[in-house]
Amino acid sequence: MSKNADDLAQLIRARAGDAPVRLGLILGSGLGHLAGAVDGVAIPYADLPGFPHASVSGHNPNLVIGTLEGVRVAVFGAREHYYEKGNPAAMRLPLEVLRALGAYSLIVTNAAGSLRPDIRPGDLMMLSDHINFSGLNPLIGEPTDARFVPMGDAHDPAIRTALAASASAVGVALPQGVYAWYSGPSFETPAEIRAIRTLGGDAVGMSTVPEVILARFLGLSVAAISTITNMAAGLSDEKISHEHTKAMAPLGAAKLERVLRHYLSNLR
Fold this sequence. Notes:
By secondary structure, this protein is of the alpha/beta class. Helices cover 32% and strands 23% of the residues. The chain has a 5-stranded mixed β-barrel, surrounded by 4 helices. One of its GO terms (biological process) is nucleoside metabolic process.
């Protein structure tokens, strides 16, 4: 843990209280309304030295500390994507701060394109595993042997089981699948999508995998859920664009909020 993370954690406690955070939540495109559901304090990233200033429309760059369904959470309203500045470790400091605030688990959400005909726009998909299709890694340059992070259960089985039970309880379909990280910012070509399907990918997106790697490096248990905003390139006639992603994300976001609220209510 860096000294900077400890200093930021002290700054955050001074504004949001000393109670330890139990869980972190990173919000994907179009999911910012979840931060507004938290009873707590919103701290702009601009007030947190060293925090990445995400510049993607559809994201709200605030850290919200408070309670949701009675659980103390830290909600990251935006993430810096690799394609913004070419830094796969951009979210390292925020996740170090999350650990310094006391959290031991993290749920990551994202918007993704589906490669499966049974998972359509507006649906959710929980990540059972991932493929680092980009080949990049946020731990490159880490000088300690801690960089050799085992990834066999990167997506925590216990959290996934609990999320699946919550989805069933609230009547939301939550199939599991493999997510492939594509660096972006251009969308994938049909040939790249065919390659990802051959490799075993079920959905594709431009985030999440760096945070999962960093979370495991920091000792956080992690799970991730995609909101499906489109079928991947070559699998439908729809026109893929960021505006389309922002327009479609709320369809799955309402389902995701129900699942997360039920999950949190059972953590108390």
